[in-house]
Specification:
The complex is a heterodimer of chains A (about 525) and B (about 140). Chain A is of the alpha+beta class and about 525 residues long. Chain A contains ten helices and twelve strands. Chain B has a single domain, classed as 3-Layer(aba) Sandwich (Rossmann fold), CATH 3.40.50.2300. Chain B has helices at about 15-25, 40-45, 70-75, 95-105, 115-130, and strands at about 5-10, 35, 55-60, 85-90, 110.
Amino acid sequence: MNKHNNIDPIKLTQGIFGKILITMSMLLLLIIVIFTSIQIQSEKYILISKVHESISEMKLNLKREGRSVSSGLGRITENAIASYDFFGLFEVIRESVDLEPNLSYAILVNKDRKALLHTDRPDLEQEVLDQNYDIFASQQERPIFQEYESYESDKTKYLEYIFPIQVSTSTWGHLRLGFSLIALERKIEHSENEIKKQTRHIVLRSLVLAGIFMILGTFVAFILSRKISHPISVLTAYSAELAQGNYSFKPDEELIGKDEVGRLASSFGIMAANIKHANDKLEGYSQNLEEKVKERTNELESVNQELKNFAYIVSHDLKAPLRSIGSLASWLKTDYENILDDAGKEQLELLVGRVNRMHALIGGILQYSRVGRVDEVTSKVDINFMIQEVIDILNPPENIKIILDSDFPIIDFEPTRIQQIFQNIISNAIKYIDKPEGIIHLGCKSHGEFWEFYVSDNGPGIDEKYHDKVFQLFQTLQSKDTYESTGVGLSIIKKIIETNNGRIWIESSEGSGTTFKFLLLKEKCNVKK
Amino acid sequence: MLKNKDILLIEDDSIDSMSFKRALSELGIKNKVRHVENGEEGLAYLSNIENSRPGIIFMDINMPRMTGPEFLKIALEKNLVSYIPVVVLTTSREEKDKTECFDLGVSGYMIKDIHFKDFVITMKTIFDYWTLCDFPGL
């Protein structure tokens, strides 16, 4: 198979397979990224909310515990103050602080914010506490929980239970119990670390999962792309084969499948079959045509051969008896000279004359049939030289002058044929001149792709109605006995000129001389007549 | 030199052979004319050792049964015409016939003239020439 136009192999990124694979993989990656991040976010959120829940629960527990401790201590404090048993009260409070694990400190201030007891800072006892927070605490008339940060450098967080001491319906002062949040904070910190750890774990797990999904997904995408693109590749290869004229190529139907691509492939198949059918038909026609042409050529050749044989037969078989008649007539005349009278001798003379004319006619027919039938070799002919030769051959009588009006070209032509043309026309001119002083002009000029030659004489001229007739075979204007003319010469040169794509015509009227003009191609065309 | 040698004429046309003989008698040539009518007869005549070898052969081209060139070809192969000039007498002016004959080494190619008188002149020239011509002695 001759590959006229090779189809380049498709690059992976340009082919359908590559495109599908890349698109699917990108989509997969996007989906996995989105899902993984959503999952991580949501798990983190769940963790955080769980932690918050436990923190608030712990706070609640702390508060509940604090409240029970505080309200117990508060009531003890109220009773102790009412009975002015400060010493016992302080003992109880200190004991409680020591005993309760979460209770860090206890402060007892009167309504002038003077600290009567400060378990954390005994140095501040008997001092007025005047920090903002202290002022805020002294203004409370109901027990509340308040979270605050210590003013100390450690910024420890405390949950303080502010309990106003009611003595005989008026607020005597406040008992402030500080529950340390350190444990809680530690727990929160621990939880946060736990969250971080868990998050890392989740992220790791998600990434591993994503990776596995990615690999699996890519594999699936690869298989899918292959499944989609492979029939198309097969189809592409198929169409390429068809494009290169390989109509008998059949793709593997199993590879193509039965979907749209399969339909397309079978349509291609039908198309290919149709094209093949048409091609075969065409080939058949052309073969048939070739055979026909061959047949016709053979017929033509045989007809041509027959024609040649015909001319040959004319040459030999017609001439032979004619010559015999001539010989017998002349023998009759010599052998029976004494027996024949004058009339008999004249008739024999006439018989010989007619035999001569018939001989000339047969010769003319042969010459005429040779033109265009017998190929002659073309060569460069110098017309100047050739005309001189013709004049020498014709040897015109002294009363006829031949004048060359111009220079003549060199042309491609069969030498004997071109000579025949000039010799015939010039000899006609010489033969028919009826003036005492005959003048014949010869000339040539360029005429487009032709040379135009002319031969003009001052002879009797030819009436326009005979201009065509003189070129017809066996047509003469004079009686055949007046001039030795067969009426073949002009027919022959017309045939020579026309078979060489030229043209000949006469410009003349009776009594004003005759001009023969003819055109010959400057460049002999190679197209055979 | 032809001397008294026979002349072999291969010619199918009786009037042509008549005019041949007439021309010889007008020219006063006394050599015997052996006339056969086609190439086959010509071959037979030359093959027969009882017949004397001719001094010159005249032959037509177009003849029934075997043409002149066909005859000459076989005669050459069989060595029947060595040292015998063969002159073609024909009406054909075909280039093909001329080249075929000269390729076979003919000594002359004469177109039969329409005029008997001209034919006599042609024959005189031929005989004058071949009578003068010296041959290897046989």
